[in-house]
Amino acid sequence: MAGGSREAGRSVTDKVLSVLTAFESERRPLALTEIAAIAGIPVSTAHRLVGELTEWQLISRTSNGRYQLGLRIWELAQNVGRQLRDTAKPFVQDVFSLSRETSHIAIRDGNEVLYIERVYDSRRVPQSAGTGGRLPMHTTAVGKVLLAYEEPWVRTAYLGLDLQRATDRTITGARELAAELDLTRARGYATTHGEQSPGTCSIAVPVFHTGRIGAALGIVVPAERSETMTKHLPVLKAVSSRLEAATARIPLETLIKAHHGDPPKDTESAGS
Amino acid sequence: MAGGSREAGRSVTDKVLSVLTAFESERRPLALTEIAAIAGIPVSTAHRLVGELTEWQLISRTSNGRYQLGLRIWELAQNVGRQLRDTAKPFVQDVFSLSRETSHIAIRDGNEVLYIERVYDSRRVPQSAGTGGRLPMHTTAVGKVLLAYEEPWVRTAYLGLDLQRATDRTITGARELAAELDLTRARGYATTHGEQSPGTCSIAVPVFHTGRIGAALGIVVPAERSETMTKHLPVLKAVSSRLEAATARIPLETLIKAHHGDPPKDTESAGS
DNA sequence: CCTTGTTTTTCATTCAGTGAAAAGGGAACA
DNA sequence: TGTTCCCTTTTCACTGAATGAAAAACAAGG
Known about the structure:
2 copies of one chain form a homodimer. The first copy, chain A, is of the alpha+beta class. The first copy, chain A, has 2 domains: about 10-75, Arc Repressor Mutant, subunit A (Orthogonal Bundle), CATH 1.10.10.10; about 80-255, Beta-Lactamase. The first copy, chain A, is about 40% helix and about 20% strand. Chain A is built from 9 helices and 8 strands. The first copy, chain A, has helices at about 10-25, 30-40, 45-55, 70-75, 80-100, 140-150, 150-160, 175-185, 235-250, and strands at about 60, 65-70, 100-110, 110-120, 135, 190-195, 200-210, 210-220. In chain A, the strands form 2 sheets. Chain A has a 6-stranded antiparallel beta sheet with strand order 5-4-3-8-7-6, sandwiched between helices. Chain A has a two-stranded antiparallel ribbon with strand order 1-2. Chains A and B meet through helix 1, helix 3, helix 4 and helix 5 of A and helix 1, helix 3, helix 4 and helix 5 of B. Chain B binds a DNA duplex through helix 3.
């Protein structure tokens, strides 16, 4: 065929999705050639696929001929975990208006923290991660909370990872982190002090659902105000329990379905 | 072939996207059979496509075996118009915290209003449309604003449509609506009184960008408080101009690329 | 005018995708 | 336990939809 050797095992679907997800790596509008390169497909194929995606409004074209994700995909995605996000949103706002500090709620997805909703001031500079952003668990207060209250095997698995350093204050030792998690459970909240980015501290409390850890609610404050952080604990605690009450009725099914991994089979137990 | 007569002209991409968008019509998790029916493809094909989409995390599976859109597509979609949404968000919050009424910002997409961001109280009942929702232009205050300040041909085109009735107070006469739009421009804001849903009123002001209408900022209030609506005008106006200042630097390109339609060619002008 | 970098179109080739049909669950009921 | 009903999953022979190298068209500099 003119098409010579097809790359084996690459389905059309695969290629389409490669094109779509190409926009994850680069946030700016992409040229066709770039898309093709990132997705790892020939330009002509990319051309056709991008054309179809554009017809479906999943991709839109900027006036200079470049491509970016389209409105339609945003609309579509609004339905993902809507019930949880819509419910949680005003509570995060409450935290913000009572603390006047950047407030957020996050869940665990795999070994990362995923920010579901964030409320911030119009003057405040954007943080390391906005809504939809991810950060490691050991560098954030919400992450520590989500890990501390998680089932033992999750915690153990995470402690076994190579903990990446984000700043010079980042906790990278498994033992140290374990102690930090114990402390978190003991006092019911977690903090960070410049562990994710220098100059910012954070504090977070757990949000439970059906007896298990579901999310973490927290705030971020500039280092110079770190002293005042614990002052906001009552607010966090109170809002958290109101949120727990509000989400209690929501079936787990319709909450955000995250990657929680699978527990080890472990037929022969540790003590066997 | 075993597959008999393929439905002609249906590309794989088409089918994949039909599957994805199937989740727009029904908000609940869908069974494979349902997806196949909605997307208009055979079950076995749906099965394969859904399988691939699931591998890519664009679709996730609930414990009862049904499918729903996955976290990944939400994350992906966070990049759409992010700069505009992130910028606008705290301003909408400002409106909310100053008015204590459900506040929102919307843009025009085609002949509809698209809500970009909405801030509401934890007690307030969900409105007709949440973030990412659409409503007609003539039944909402934001819609009236977006239409009133739009280029003449857009307005003319909309007035030519068959204006659907939402409540018994909905304006459905072209002449009436034209007068309403004139009024809107004259006084610099628009209102509705039970025109979209009985019992709720709304008020909105324009947000300009590079001299053109870009968005509309508004609030929704229950009918019994409708008298107090105009009391919030100063807030809306003030926040709007602060938002205009904040968005002025953002290049139009990276704002949300909506369907604005094409002006009529109209080589022979009306008066020719 | 040429060069360099794109985007777009073309087209002979063939294998990835196809979908009817059959088999495999599993829940509800008798 | 068997039967019914509905949904999911697997199978498989067949072929036209998808393919991608290559060439053409376009755009922006130099």
